[in-house]
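Dear Dr. L.,

I hope this message finds you well. Following up on our conversation about the binding site, I have prepared a predicted three-dimensional model of the protein together with inosinic acid. For your records, I am including the exact sequence and ligand specification that went into the calculation, followed by the structure tokens. Please feel free to forward this to your student if that is useful.
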Amino acid sequence: MASVNEMISEEQLRIRVEEISHEIADGMGGEDFTIVGVLKGSVVFLADLMRALHRRGLCPEVDFLTVSSYGESTESSGAAKVLSGLHQEVTGKTILLVDDIADTALTLQHARDHLLSLGAREAYTCVLLDKPARRRVDFTPDYHGFSIQNVFVVGYGLDAANRHRCLPYVAELKEGDGAE
Ligand code: IMP
Ligand code: MG
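The resulting structure of the complex is given below.
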């Protein structure tokens, strides 16, 4: 059986999302920017972040990208690929790329390069979780919520083979004997 153990509570998430929205509002220096969320893991964080940004007086446009790297596995395949694209023009725009987690960081690096290749002026990155121990490329997100150890986490948008996204908190998923 796999077990799901709460690691970051709803209250901790709420407080930290408010703080990040402050950091973004200060850090983006009043510049107009567009949020690009990486589907599907970013959606819960993104929805809370958008409303927190609104409380700071910001209401950026929002678009989405799908990038694949894992399939249904919990290990990165090492190759990130943009699967479906933006609905809006990004040429000349400042982008805040939002994802659930920077793990190997191949996804974010690839997505950022993709946006810049489409002519974005700047592409900043924001993740809820950062797992620096797993990096395979030299990449530091501009904004991050929590730095975590090398454990597999689910909830608050993060999944394991499309399960557990709806948990309102972040939990560590511990695989047991695989008999789940
Ligand atoms: P990357 O290895 O940084 O490219 O991460 C690729 C994607 O894997 C992330 O966008 C997440 O959706 C997913 N991922 C990485 N680590 C975890 C985890 O601990 N739990 C759930 N998804 C993860
Ligand atoms: Mg993802």
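In brief: The CA atoms of residues 1 and 178 lie 6 Å apart.

With kind regards,
A. P.
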